[in-house]
Give the backbone structure.
Amino acid sequence: MYDIIIIGGGPAGLTAALYARRANKSVLVIEKAAFGGQITYSPKVENIPGFISLSGNEFADKLVEQVLEQGAEVELAEVKGITGGDVKTVITDGGEFTAKAVIIATGAKHRLLGLDREEELVGNGISFCAVCDGAFYQGQTVAVIGGGNSALQEALLLSDLVKKLYIVQNLDYFTGEKKLVEQLLAKDNVEVFFGNLASEYIGDGEITGLKIKDAKTGAEHVLEVNGIFVAVGLIPQNEPFKNIVALDGYGYADADETCKTETAGVFVAGDCRKKRIRQVTTAAADGAIAALAACDYVDTLSRV
């Protein structure tokens, strides 16, 4: 039995593992795909303290190396659920593991459009985060797909950096806040295509254009762009834990900045938690907070 099992190997989960090991707790990190999380899609990252520039993969590799050096164990498996009690059982497709405390740090996936070659173009012209990648398109032409608050916020940030910004919205109106809409439409370099669907990514190996289709007439048009920011929502990866952690209406773990859930000994960290800002630094902060809270919980059990 481990002191702490951490589900998810992104910045939140790996930071939690680091802090828990520094507190001399036995730790297992379970990751279902690739360590590093969403940041591995970023070919160049410049907003991580202490690094002028590095790729998301390089950052992930450094995190994993640091955690392994501290003595954490890792397991590649998909978690199917957790059973509660004083001893938590984490059920995976490769077996069961037990621990005194569990930290859920499964993150959230960016919702994709389902177009051909979409996944292979992520990081090669398709981005999700203007804060992370916007500066790489300074003085160029980009498109934002989406019309909610997230898309509008991405577009506002990009409009101050790029030469030309197209916004493609499938509806005939924006669904985001009126104030954001007013600010965006006041920009001279912004052009909006309402009632249009993104239908094809143009480019061999990297993005050179975006084909859009009028939802009513079927007429198609190609926008020449250097990059595309997809902002059509996130999908939190919390479905296996809905029986043990309260979720909000969007599927995020309904926990505050303490990272504690209503289930004793179960904590959440990172993008899977209800929060406003989702960046690598906020994920790492959650990981530290959740780990220290989990360590306190384990220490309390040992004193009983």
Summary: The chain has a mean pLDDT of 94.
